[in-house]
Amino acid sequence: RRLTRADLDALPSYVPGRNPADLARELGLAEAIKLASNEVPYGPLPGVPEAIADAATNVHRYPDMGVLALREALAARLSVGIERIATGCGSVALCEHLLKAATVPGDEVVFSWRSFEAYPIIAATAGVKAVTVPNDAGHGHDLEAMAAAVTDKTRVVIVCNPNNPTGTSVRRAELERFLDRVGTDVLVLLDEAYREFVTDAEVPDGLVEFGDRPNVVVVRTFSKAWGLAGLRAGYLVAHPDVADAVRKVVTPFSTNAVVQAAALAALKAQDEMERRAAQVIAERTRLTEEVRKLFPGVPDSQSNFVWLPLGERALAFGKHCESRGVIVRPFPGDGVRVTVGTPEENDTFLKVAAEAV
Ligand code: PMP
Predict the structure, then answer these.
(1) 13 falls in which pLDDT band (50, 70, 90)?
(2) Sheet arrangement for strand 305-308
(3) What are the structural domain ranges in the chain?
(4) What pTM, to 2 d.p., does this model score?
(5) In this prediction, does ipTM exceed 0.85?
(6) What is the pLDDT of residues 217-258, one digit of tens each?
(7) How far apart are CA 103 and CA 197, in angstroms?
(8) Where does the Aminotransferase class I/classII large domain lie (predicted)?
(9) Which fold has domain 6-44+271-356?
(10) Is the shortest distance between the CB of 167 and ligand 1 below 6 Å?
(11) Which atom of ligand 1 is the closest one to the Cα of 224?
């Protein structure tokens, strides 16, 4: 008799970006560039390495299980009560915990596709049915169709705003209409992993504008603009009852002591985070303009990456870039996601991309 679940055999594993040092060695280059995982290229924020070193002296002790200092700092920054906040091992873990907290096997979760590649995986591992709604012609969410896909079995709808990997975003009025239409019996998970890069005033801050609805859950991360991808720190803001349920399903101590200290230090460097995000945003504008000269149909991005809708050419383009020492993220048959890097990295990418045209 097999010892593990048979349905996991067919489940794809999460694919991380390639390690640039390995690629450089393979190609015999001094260095390779990684524009594949939506990281910010400037290193940790000031104060973070010191906070990590400091926390390291005490790692023989368990961390604060309640994550109080960090949740208090987040509560103050976001102007919400601490009881509404849960933290976890990256925001992807919180998405998974929310499914665990809200569903039983056989329930449904609705999300747009293509979107964040972890959604189908966490739906399957939670034992819920993924109901996917195709992206619209502009590569973004079709909220009308998503609302229409909600059934009696739907417990969660995920709205990824801005959407990974297409960078598109939903506007205030359409999100409001959507929330009104789905009502309050279904949880709406607003995944705002890229919130800090949003500049379009029409794109709502889900927490400020809709966070008071009892069924709205906002998930954000320290991995992107806050520069802590390697540590795994995410947070969720929800109605106190929902946050409480999520905290119950989180693996104990999963926001570890080093993470708590580093995330607190990062929050203290908010001005520098914003300065860096502004650099990324300026480069996003430039990169978008330049890639549009090479490829048709590149959508506007409100995140720290751009989407090249290359269809059947996506994989070959990704391989070409990799052969020239630039790691991007192809989604075979669909498109290629390119993370905004430093100006020099973006220049290198644009040169390599032009060769492929
Ligand atoms: N949500 C979205 C939309 C993402 O793109 C990502 C990372 N790629 C995550 C969540 C997860 O980020 P993390 O677990 O590092 O917080």
Answers:
(1) confident
(2) 305-308, 335-339, 329-331
(3) 6-44+271-356, 48-268
(4) 0.97
(5) yes
(6) 999 999 999 999 999 999 999 999 999 999 999 999 999 999
(7) 31
(8) 32-351
(9) Aspartate Aminotransferase, domain 1 (3.90.1150)
(10) no
(11) 15
